[in-house]
């Protein structure tokens, strides 16, 4: 029996329930994909909690890998049996099956397994646009990334190293700091017991950094601004600690004519061509061995509640996946 996670109200992880679910036949231009592995991402918790409103009832999840089961009318570049993955929705990946527009799907290289693909699509695309498009780093740059032992974080550590960039990461435990260092972070700051701004200033000889990539949000917003050099950029791209609200723009001038952007992956891979270019670069980085995909939590589809509790409870490192 095929299954899916459904929410009929927003709230705590327990609003997610597993139901019997028969995916409809693929519409024109769509693929019906039978999932072998499903990616868990922080954004899934925002859809579930109501921070990012979705029409109810709703599925959860934007990322999965598996096999094409059927193709809709007009699809001629995929066939049943093809190994594929997607990382930009549509919502409803926490399920045995999902229908996805063919243009939003990547064909998997033989060398990339389903588990790996489900762990790297969304996180890899995010690291790629942050490092190469939001603030295109140059070899020799030093950047700050918060929660460097997390899912996107461990990809950022490795990709920054590959690009010749020094990454100063933060994490809440010594174990997380050690993990991020082993994956390519140049310096790690234990945010539970060290002053992040002082340490960043010390590491950079007082200069600060040209860019801070901040997926933590509310609790790190002011810290991030204080880590920047004049005319530096804060890319605040997530809300793990809550959303940033009520910003006084005067702060930006006081702290050095700073820039702030609030980017979202969807806008960077809005066209099928941009999506294809991004995923090709991610798979190239994996094939070259520049990025080693780290899956540190595996759950059954029926354990989605536990997966969200662990992610929001700061108990995870690297990527989490669900196996349907
Ligand atoms: P992570 O694996 O990084 O998990 C979040 C981490 O944030 C935790 O492990 C924890 O690390 C840290 N954290 C700090 N404060 C809190 C808090 N109060 N509650 C929970 N966690 C906290 O998640 P992902 O890699 O999936 O995502 C990272 C961020 O990137 C998220 O905010 C996500 O929404 C965002 N994102 C944004 C995208 C975009 O395009 N805008 C795309 C993809 C992700 P520690 O304990 O070490 O502090």
Summarize the model shown.
The chain is α/β, with parallel strands linked by helices and 324 residues long. Helices cover 31% and strands 25% of the residues.
| Residues in helix, % | 25-40%
General form: globular
How many domains is the backbone divided into?
2
| CATH top level assignment of the largest domain | Alpha Beta
* Chain-averaged pLDDT: 98
CATH architecture of the largest domain: Alpha-Beta Complex
Instruction: Please give the radius of gyration in angstroms.
Output: 20 Å
Count of DSSP helices? 10
Work out the strand percent. Answer: 25-35%
CATH superfamily of the largest domain: Medium-chain alcohol dehydrogenases, catalytic domain
Bound molecules: NADPH dihydro-nicotinamide-adenine-dinucleotide phosphate
Largest sheet: 7 strands, mixed
CATH topology of the largest domain: Quinone Oxidoreductase, Chain A, domain 1
- Unreliable residue runs: none
Distance between the termini: 11 Å
| Secondary structure category | alpha/beta
Count the E strands. 15
One letter per element, helices H and strands E, the order comes to EEEHEEEEHEHEHEHEHEHEHHEHE
């Amino acid at each position: 029996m095929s299954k899916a996670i459904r929410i009929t109200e927003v709230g705590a992880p327990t609003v997610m329930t597993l139901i019997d679910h028969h995916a409809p036949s693929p519409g024109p231009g769509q693929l019906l994909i039978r999932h072998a592995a499903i990616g868990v991402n922080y954004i899934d918790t925002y859809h579930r909690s109501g921070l990012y409103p979705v029409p109810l009832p709703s599925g959860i999840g934007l990322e999965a890998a598996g096999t094409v089961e059927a193709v809709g009318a007009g699809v001629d570049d995929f066939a049943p049996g093809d190994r594929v993955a997607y990382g930009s929705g549509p919502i409803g990946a926490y399920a045995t099956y999902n229908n996805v527009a063919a243009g939003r799907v990547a064909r998997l290289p033989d060398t990339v397994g389903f588990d790996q693909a489900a762990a790297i699509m969304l996180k890899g695309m995010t690291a790629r646009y942050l490092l190469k498009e939001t603030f295109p780093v140059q070899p020799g740059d030093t950047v700050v990334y918060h929660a460097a032992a997390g899912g996107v974080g461990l990809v950022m550590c490795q990709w920054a190293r590959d690009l010749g960039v020094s990454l100063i990461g933060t994490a809440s435990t010594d174990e997380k700091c050690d993990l991020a260092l082993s994956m390519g972070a140049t310096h790690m700051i234990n945010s539970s017991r060290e002053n992040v701004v002082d340490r960043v200033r010390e590491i950079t000889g007082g200069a600060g950094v040209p860019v801070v990539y901040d997926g933590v949000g509310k609790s790190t917003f002011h810290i991030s601004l204080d880590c920047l050099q004049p005319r530096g950029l804060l890319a605040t791209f997530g809300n793990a600690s809550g959303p940033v609200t009520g910003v006084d723009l005067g702060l930006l001038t006081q702290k050095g004519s700073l820039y702030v952007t609030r980017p979202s992956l969807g806008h960077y891979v809005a066209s099928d061509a941009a999506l294809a270019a991004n995923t090709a670069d991610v798979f190239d980085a994996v094939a070259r061995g520049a990025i080693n995909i780290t899956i540190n939590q595996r759950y059954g589809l029926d354990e989605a509640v536990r997966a969200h509790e662990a992610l929001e409870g700061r108990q995870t490192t690297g990527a989490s996946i669900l196996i349907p």
